[in-house]
Write a structure and sequence with these properties.
Layout: H1 16-35, E1 47-48, E2 58-62, E3 68-70, E4 73-75, H2 80-88, E5 95-100, H3 106-118, E6 122-125, E7 128-129
Parallel strand pairs: 1-7, 2-5, 5-6
Antiparallel strand pairs: 2-3, 3-4
Length: 130
């Protein structure tokens, strides 16, 4: 008596659905990565090893024309300290990311460091990766 089943399971694996999923994920990540913009000016920073994480921090930028910016808002050097104090308030978990362009005199960067030191605010110097 012949009792074999008529339906045999094929041992082959079809990869077409897997490639469709991979291409959809690729398109999704390409589209969403272009929508992510950083809240910073386009400055040429000095090179160094390390990486800056700017999740809850305020960026203070100094460009080559010695103009000061808080995030993207232009501000005078004399108004820098009161503006920073109003932004930080009593929140000591935030930090200042100091973005001084190459060629900026060190005195300008030190003035921002002095403001942060007087008010017990942490400062991180942003650089380009090597």
């Amino acid at each position: 008596m012949n009792l074999r089943g008529r339906n045999k399971v094929s041992p082959e694996f079809n990869m077409s659905s897997m490639t469709d999923i991979v291409f959809l994920l690729l398109i999704f990540f390409m589209l969403t990565s272009t929508m992510v913009t950083t809240n910073a000016l386009d400055l040429v920073l000095p090179k160094a090893k390390g990486k800056t994480d700017s999740n809850k921090n305020i960026a203070v930028s100094i460009d080559k024309d010695l103009q000061f910016y808080i995030d993207k808002e232009k501000i005078s050097e004399t108004d820098l300290e009161p503006k920073l104090l109003s932004i930080f308030g009593s929140d000591k978990t935030k930090a200042i990311i100091l973005r001084a362009e190459e060629g900026v005199p060190i005195e300008k960067a030190v003035s921002v460091l002095d403001i942060a030191n007087r008010n017990q605010i942490k400062v991180v110097l942003a650089v380009r990766p090597k």
